[in-house]
């Protein structure tokens, strides 16, 4: 049976070149980067080289990059840190209704601590506008956090325009770019971004390592204390091998970002058009064109998303119904509900996300298999009258 992996928004396969770059730091070069001896300094040099690779990919300065354990930690560090450091200026934060839970749950935590949070609604495609942000900013607003691209439906936000509004109003602007980095060209200065979160395993790097960009002059207190690592911003002995892997992965991804983007967009469009023509009563979620190159998200009416996933898995296809972080929940996607999709239709969502290894043959197999799966499930559905 053919095996097809189309859940790259959840995690990606580790690139072989990345693994090769990491191996010396899992074996022979095992020194602590904080140690002064040669063993430690070799590890320290590797960390700083990776920092430069990340900075180069984002158009940032090396000193503006802080290594973390994941994108979630980076998001938490921004929201909790900015709230604490700048609370004398104000206690109002703006975000959107479709953020990853790493942002949403942290915002809710801040509300319990006495902060006020505005959750901007989105349009039918899952977008917020710069005008909405401008209208929501108040004299006591200290932070705006808007994701670069949605992890479920793939819609890309107008980041540059939102950043310009925040810059004009004197408010810090953070973007959770976990799904975008390595897939879309990003320049933090040109896009008016003050803080940015990323995670290595979303662009064929290792799990368990992320990074945070913090523009010079912005103070973000440490989330973890106990050591002087990362210029006193993130205590704990560095995950040297993981950091090396992150650096190599982002370097490789950005070196071919245009070529890969064009290829994945072509495959994505084949999937979108193929599903629409082969299966009746389906709805594409997210913007048709202003979306991530590798993201396809459909609501398939009259059947449950979980049933589709199980049937696809039996046929060798790995897919998702939404965020992997909430896949165990029986509740429909908060993203789809925020976009105005009815509860019963939101339950039938299917997310297919492509990666570097996805081929035309993979797309062919999905387009051959999915209609049969849907037809079989609909025959068992009391809701389907087709």
Question: Would you mind describing this structure in some detail?
Answer:
With 386 residues, the chain is an alpha/beta fold. The chain has 2 domains: 4-12 and 257-380, Aspartate Aminotransferase, domain 1 (Alpha-Beta Complex); 16-255, Aspartate Aminotransferase, domain 2 (3-Layer(aba) Sandwich). Helix content is 40%, strand content 13%. The chain has 13 helices and 12 strands. The chain has helices at 16-22, 38-58, 71-85, 101-112, 130-136, 159-169, 229-232, 240-255, 257-278, 305-314, 334-338, 343-346, 360-380; strands at 4-5, 65-68, 92-96, 116-120, 141-145, 172-176, 195-199, 210-214, 282-284, 295-300, 317-318, 349-353. The protein is globular and about 70 Å long. It starts with a strand and ends in a 6-residue tail after the last helix.
Please give the number of β-strands. Answer: 12
Strand order of the largest sheet: 2-8-7-6-5-3-4
Low-confidence stretches: none
Give Rg in angstroms: 21 Å
| Total number of helices | 13
The CATH superfamily of the largest domain bears the name Type I PLP-dependent aspartate aminotransferase-like (Major domain)
CATH fold-level topology of the largest domain: Aspartate Aminotransferase, domain 2
Distance between the termini: 30 Å
State which percent range the strand residues make up.
5-15%
CATH architectural type of the largest domain: 3-Layer(aba) Sandwich
* CATH class assignment of the largest domain: Alpha Beta
Sequence-ordered SSE layout with sheet pairings:
Blueprint: E1 4-5, H1 16-22, H2 38-58, E2 65-68, H3 71-85, E3 92-96, H4 101-112, E4 116-120, H5 130-136, E5 141-145, H6 159-169, E6 172-176, E7 195-199, E8 210-214, H7 229-232, H8 240-255, H9 257-278, E9 282-284, E10 295-300, H10 305-314, E11 317-318, H11 334-338, H12 343-346, E12 349-353, H13 360-380
